[in-house]
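Case study 2.
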Amino acid sequence: MNYKKVIIFGAHPDDEITMAGTIFKMSNSGTNVVVITMTNGCEGYPDIKMKKRIVEMRKKEAEECDKILGISKRIFLDIPDMGLVNDKETLKRCIKIIRDEKPDAIFTHGPVDNHRDHINTHFISVEARWHAGEPVSAELGSPWHTPHLYYYKGVIEGLPSVIIDVTDVAEKKYEALMSQVSQFTVFRKSKDEFLKEIEFIKKNRPKRIEQF
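Prediction:
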């Protein structure tokens, strides 16, 4: 993971937290971490009273997560939740981002998932990576081939794996999750439960890994 720059594709504003420890370790060692958030989080409200302000809430929570994990740049495509499709416009937007950012590696969703936004993020990002390296659509920038591709969730069993030991920074995942206040009901955890988990990790340092 000794990269100068990486792109992480996430369907929703908190998906990248799955690999929080790796993000923190990379950013802490000088890697430029760019997160592409495909949707705007508009359906992530557990209470009807939150509906009108949930998009703004989730963007602010994403900003807080960026500070915790050291994410240097986040790009929102602002597509409505449950409305992400693998169309030409979205594909070309992603190709342009890849060509503009010129990452050494791309991290994205795998193909196994129940959520349509997760699955479509997988197919769009994988295809965009390939197209970005081809001599096509010159208006989107010069071709850029990203040499490394990783899946951080939704992975098919049997694929080769890269294991990252995040024992020394495991609390960062829970600190990042704790910043996503609007999603506590979805996570089925309270702030106090997150704080207890953080305290336990710091005190006991149980073995923690992240797999790609």
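Strands lie at 5-10, 32-39, 73-79, 105-109, 148-153, 163-165, 209-211.
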